[in-house]
Amino acid sequence: MPPILSVAGLEKHYDSGLTALGGVDLEVRRGEIFALLGPNGAGKTTLISIICGTVTMTSGKVLVGGHDVVTDFRAARSIIGLVPQEIALDIFSTVWNTVVFSRGLFGRSPDPAYLEQILRDLSLWEKRNSKVIELSGGMKRRVMIAKALSHEPELLFLDEPTAGVDVNLRRDMWALVRRLRDKGVTIVLTTHYIEEAEDMADRVGVIEKGRILLVEDMTTLMEKLGKRRLTLVLQHPMAAIPPELAGWPLELQADGQQLLYTFDANAEGTGVPGLLKRLGELGIDFKDLDTERSSLEEIFISLLEPAR
Ligand SMILES: Nc1ncnc2c1ncn2[C@@H]1O[C@H](COP(=O)(O)OP(=O)(O)OP(=O)(O)O)[C@@H](O)[C@H]1O
């Protein structure tokens, strides 16, 4: 199946002379949740804005559902739903009129039952007759999502959807995103809450200084770059790592009460049995042990470090 989004050789040089995108190639598969991660100013919003037609590209080619976003803009845009970072709503319009109007803008025939379902999914149904100005910030954000979904897009962009949003709304939003994915909607999201990307995304792309550093399945990425850590809580605190253990990648933590061993999550021989044996030989006892996997956040930071 052809990708729902295909970006090739995309460059954006702003008039200021700044290169926001320096040749981006990217494909997003139909039906996936794709997380685009990158530090502030990496080019995420510029990329999304070009795809959605609000910023013009300098060069390159972008196809959405096979439609060129420049030469076939209307067809491409009708497939897209965009929830931008900034809240942009007619504050004197009611919630209901906002979604009805937005659907109409895309030339879709009225479908009150569909719009009702969206508002119910976003816990906005009770507020349908309220004016936007009367809503809280979190509710306005939900209206932005309802508006973006009003014309039944196949590809939904969520640019920092959970910035400044409380825990409950965040949970509701992610539940909705999953339901949309289950209905076949493709979702591209940017977030600074990397643990959310880890929980939600099927694939992840990392962008830095206008270039894509990597695109990978989440599970593959975690396996490929993931490290595991073994923490041993010692019976007797140590002042320093004994010279007999100098060959092992160990660190002392918690005032010498914990010994930390980091190893490759996929290595055949992790070295853990050997380490435990050696500790036994040296008479180093421990009262507890714990293993954990490195998070996507740690992987993300380690990916960016060489580029800095
Ligand atoms: N209209 C503009 N004119 C000039 N430069 C711009 C313009 N819009 C964005 N930029 C610059 O382009 C670069 C990429 O910005 P962009 O907003 O795409 O980054 P981002 O990855 O979305 O960042 P953030 O995570 O902070 O939202 C930045 O250096 C930014 O200052």
UniProtKB/TrEMBL annotation:
This protein's UniProt keywords: ATP-binding, Nucleotide-binding, Transport
GO molecular function, a single term: ATP binding
Highest taxon of the lineage: Bacteria
Domain ABC transporter positions: 5-234
SUPFAM superfamilies, alphabetized: P-loop containing nucleoside triphosphate hydrolases
Stored PANTHER family: ABC TRANSPORTER ATP-BINDING PROTEIN
Protein name, as recorded: ABC transporter ATP-binding protein
